[in-house]
Design goal:
3 domains; Aryl-phospho-beta-D-glucosidase BglC (GH1 family); Immunoglobulin-like; disordered N terminus; carbohydrate metabolism; Ig-like_fold; beta-glucosidase activity; single chain; five-stranded mixed beta sheet; alpha/beta; hydrolase
Length: 558
């Protein structure tokens, strides 16, 4: 058709009241919308708090400005966990407090106005009362149905950018096993689907998010959820799982203080199962929470470089798999009052991983002993398919040859460089080198002047026992605890390696290593316990403690 003829035809259609708009645009698919939601963030420990209101777990009241600040960080979706139970009236109606429902609607509205895709759910209800479904089936189902009848009704005509998630981390107590667990979860998900779809309006095709049992990616859980998707036969469904890493690494227990091959394989295997079991079948996946479990106690539970390597690989696997990820943040990452990241380096690694790979290294620490001659040190680079370019010290580019050499994935810092960097008196970080790669964020490599830590004898109480420690620049990685016969002492008796921050923790400013009441609660009275402290420099030091009632004595070992 000529351009002139096309114009004449369009003009004729307009005159006839039949203006031609071109071919109809197909509605975006669940997979396309899931992709558009990457990356996402969780407004954790807020509307899901189980206290009187959203501030009861220590976070400030949500404001539009907070949401705008999060949007400015590059997030395209926000998961707003909601716990409904303490805001419900009694049976049989289980009426949700209108003021609370209105508050949830207000926060959701603000998030939508800021351009987010938004996901809300039923959160801590899962373990508070839904978990009793095996022994209280009818009451639990009635209460659950009441929540979603009211919530679906309230959001019936809300923007399609709002998604509804049936339940967070579903679990069931007192069941006969996974066969019953899968059946109960399928019953909840099916009931949720029926209720939401039955309200009509925008809910007729609203995207609904269904979890696996415990929201984890074990094979049986994924297979059961895939079966539910087949049974429901609805194109507007999305699957969700959570991932907090290989458990010993995630909390630093059982010697899992490094992001080693075992921890890496756990991550790789998880994404492989998601691809094989769901994504390959056309089921889109939202990884509704991710992080490291140790963060709930202290973000220093896992050493900085090890956690950075975890998030770098996690982001790469999510991109390669087409999985949308939502960072779990209960206030420990983004300072909701100051509007800044508490650990800018960590967020830099996370946000870079949304787009590309970054180079890393076997460690972010190089220890130079002050009491020994300085020698060259070699560090293995994790190139991750990138090219290594250069090393910087501040704004200065170091010299290849006199300062460092690179052979394949081996970076050697020369003795001359290390001697120059550590010549000032005292212990601790003497310089931070920046390793640069062809893409991604630089890798920070701290050069640390150190010597073997020195521990001193002390007496104290189980409620507050601390070993006087002169760290001499070194840093504590983990601790083992055993009795004289070699058997394991303290919590997690199946391993000699105790959990960081739960059983022991360094206090560098105070110059102590604290042993917690939880540790002593599982130590045999009167039996000496041999402690071995593993330092990041590779050094180890030993110590012995003995509990007698609530009194504790600590002495230098052997």
């Amino acid at each position: 058709m000529s351009r002139l003829l096309g114009r004449l035809l369009a003009f004729a259609l307009i005159l006839g009241g039949m203006a031609w708009a071109g071919p109809a645009q197909a509605a975006p698919t669940a997979a396309a919308i899931t992709k558009a939601m990457q990356p996402g963030w969780n407004l954790g420990n807020t509307l899901d708090a189980t206290g009187a209101d959203e501030t009861s777990w220590g976070n400030p009241r949500v404001t539009r400005e907070l949401l705008r600040g999060i949007r400015a960080q590059g997030f395209k979706s926000i998961r707003i966990p909601v716990t409904w139970g303490q805001h419900q009236g009694p049976a049989p109606d289980y009426t949700i407090d209108p003021a609370y429902l209105a508050r949830v609607q207000e926060v959701v509205g603000w998030a939508l106005d800021e351009g987010f895709y938004v996901m809300i759910n039923s959160h801590h209800d899962s373990w508070q009362w839904i978990a009793t479904m095996p022994t209280d089936h009818d009451n639990v189902l009635a209460r659950y149905n009441a929540i979603w009848t009211q919530v679906a009704g309230a959001f019936r005509d809300t923007s399609p950018r709002l998604l509804l998630e049936s339940v967070n981390e579903p679990q069931f107590w007192g069941s006969t096993g996974d066969t019953e667990n899968y059946a109960l979860l399928a019953e909840l998900n099916t009931s949720f689907h029926r209720i939401v779809r039955g309200t009509g309006g925008g809910n007729a095709k609203r995207l609904l998010v269904l979890p696996t049992l415990h929201t984890n990616a074990d094979q049986g859980r994924l297979d059961a959820l895939a079966g539910e998707f087949t049974a429901l036969n609805d194109p507007n469904l999305i699957a969700t799982v959570h991932y907090y890493g290989y458990w010993p690494f995630s909390v630093n227990v059982a010697g899992g203080y490094r992001f080693d091959a075992t921890a890496q394989q756990d991550l790789l295997g998880t994404f492989q199962r998601l691809r094989d079991s769901l994504i390959s079948k056309g089921i889109p996946v939202i990884l509704g929470e991710y992080g490291l479990l140790g963060f709930d106690r202290h973000t220093g539970t896992i050493e900085q470089g090890e956690k950075l390597k975890f998030f770098e690989l996690f982001g790469q696997q999510a991109r390669a798999s087409g999985v949308t990820t939502m960072l779990w943040d209960n206030g420990q990452h983004y300072d909701r009052t100051a509007g800044v990241w508490r650990d800018a380096e960590l967020f830099g690694q996370i946000s870079s991983s949304w787009r590309t790979r970054s180079g890393t290294a076997a460690s972010d620490l190089v220890f130079v002993r002050r009491s020994a001659p300085v020698t060259a040190q070699t560090i293995t680079l994790n190139l991750n398919g990138l090219g290594f370019t250069h090393v910087r010290l501040g704004e200065t580019t170091l010299r290849r040859g006199p300062d460092y050499q690179v052979s394949g994935d081996q970076l050697t810092l020369t003795a001359g460089l290390l001697q120059r960097l550590t010549r000032t008196e005292g212990y601790g970080v003497k310089a931070s080198l920046s390793l640069r790669f062809s893409r991604g964020v630089p890798w920070r490599l701290d050069v640390v002047s150190s010597d073997t830590p020195q521990l001193a004898a002390v007496t104290g109480e189980t409620s507050a026992f601390a070993i006087p420690t002169t760290f001499n620049g070194d840093r504590l990685a983990t601790m083992t605890a055993t009795y004289a016969d070699g058997s394991n002492a303290g919590p997690h008796g199946w391993t000699p390696y105790k959990e960081f921050d739960r059983a022991f923790a360094p206090d560098y400013p105070a110059g102590t290593i604290r042993l917690t009441p939880d540790f002593f609660a599982e130590v045999t009275d009167g039996a000496p316990v041999n402690l071995r402290f593993y330092l990041w420099s590779g050094e180890t030091v030993t110590y012995q403690v003995t509990r007698t009632g609530t009194a504790v004595s600590g002495t230098l070992a052997g």
